[in-house]
Amino acid sequence: MEVSSRYVVTKAHIDGAPKESDFELKSESISLLLDSGSNDVIVKNLFVSIDPYQLNRMKSQSSSQIYSTFAAAINPGEAIDAYGVAKVLVSGNPEFQKDDLVVGLITWGDYSVIKPGGMLRKLDPMGFPLSHHVGILGFSGLTAYAGFFEVCKPKKGEKVFVSAASGSVGNLVGQYAKLFGCYVVGSAGSTEKVQILKEKLGFDDAFNYKEESDLKATLRRYFPDGIDIYFDNVGAEMQEAAIANMNVFGRVAVCGVISEYTDSGRKAAPDMIDIVYRRIKIQGFLASDFLNVYADFISTTCDHLRAGKRHTLEDISTGVESIPSSLIGLFSGHNIGKKIVQLAYSPIDIEV
Ligand code: NAP
Question: Span 116-130, mean pLDDT?
């Protein structure tokens, strides 16, 4: 038996803002009969993560492609791997059986063939929707948890600023920080997003950075007593403005610099004298450095969810054909919360 699988590829390297014409849908037939002795696992993809770092993989060059195996270069024309949840159809690997739910590196396509050594593990949904395991209980969640607790090393009552605060990582950082007992302000790119931060997620305050002409003055207004922790998702001018408003011994966790991904000429140039005399610590990090806190992250976050202390923001599109526009939308702020594409059409596939 064979299935027909559509998958997304890039046509060429993408060195600026991505557009629909940079992508195409290809199709292939996948045999569900494994050769004898094969250890492959063939899965039906159910939910796949859409993340900004994928754009850096599509560039002709980026240091991300060299220093992280997860962010290796994507060659035009080839299937694109991404984090996601899937269901096993056929397995030559004794660790997996038909109908097992799995999570790991699958592809931006209808089906994936996972070769031996691929990153895949069995998934126990623990009663949560499968989409949660791509976002709040997946890598976005680990990024927020490890970045905030391990990199920022917060103390109760500290003042925290989060950029791209209504996005996948940002909204989770803000919620961890509030539950921990910090004062939290977020920036986001629309009035609707600002409302969600303040009214739904319980941020102490929030502002639309697109309506502000002088970000240093804006942050002075929101933090008259200075910022202790800046969780940076965007880089460039926002990072400069946050550092100009940091307190002594402030910490900046550089999670990502999305405003620089589509424009190689755009860079943050913070005042280095501020950094020296205020003894500010700036640290880049990758979630994959913090697998040691994975168990803590899962148990804390599941407890929060079960106790109704956490909101889950998910922005789900449907179908392989919506993957390019979903990625493109990240760079113009179309998403609210975790951007996910659902690739299963039958409720039987995705019921927990
Ligand atoms: P996301 O925040 O859900 O989506 C991206 C958001 O960024 C958009 O919704 C948009 O919101 C904002 N944005 C886009 N272009 C911008 C610009 N030019 N200036 C300011 N804001 C802009 O994405 P995410 O997955 O949570 O990722 C957030 C950041 O974390 C990214 O930089 C990503 O690369 C990084 N990240 C790092 C790790 C790690 O291990 N270090 C892991 C995951 C993600 P607005 O409407 O607010 O503009």
Answer: 96
* Centre of ligand 1 from the C-alpha of residue 332, in Å: 10
Burial code (b: 16+ CB inside 10 Å, e: under 16) for 6-20 equals bbbbbeeebeeebee
Q: β-pairing, 159-162 with 183-188? A: parallel
Span from the CA of 191 to the centroid of ligand 1 (angstroms): 17
Is residue 141 within 8 Å of 297, Cβ to Cβ?
yes
Ligand 1 nearest atom to the CA of residue 210, by list position: 48
Q: Which atom of ligand 1 is nearest to the CA of 262?
A: 18
CB–CB of 79/118 below 8 Å?
Answer: no
CA distance 116 to 88: 14
Residues 247-278 have pLDDT tens digits of 999 999 999 999 999 998 899 999 999 999 99
> What is the per-residue pLDDT across 163-207, written as a single tens digit (0 to 9) for each?
999 999 999 999 999 999 999 999 999 999 999 999 999 999 999
Which atom of ligand 1 is closest in space to residue 51's alpha carbon?
25
Other Cβ atoms within 10 Å of 39 Cβ, number: 16
Q: Yes or no: say if 101 and 123 are a contact pair by the CB < 8 Å rule.
A: yes
- Give 56-105 pLDDT, tens digit per residue: 999 999 989 999 888 999 999 999 999 999 999 999 999 999 999 999 99
Helix (H, G, I), strand (E, B) or coil at 237: helix
* Residue from 253, 230, 234, 225 nearest 243 by CA: 230
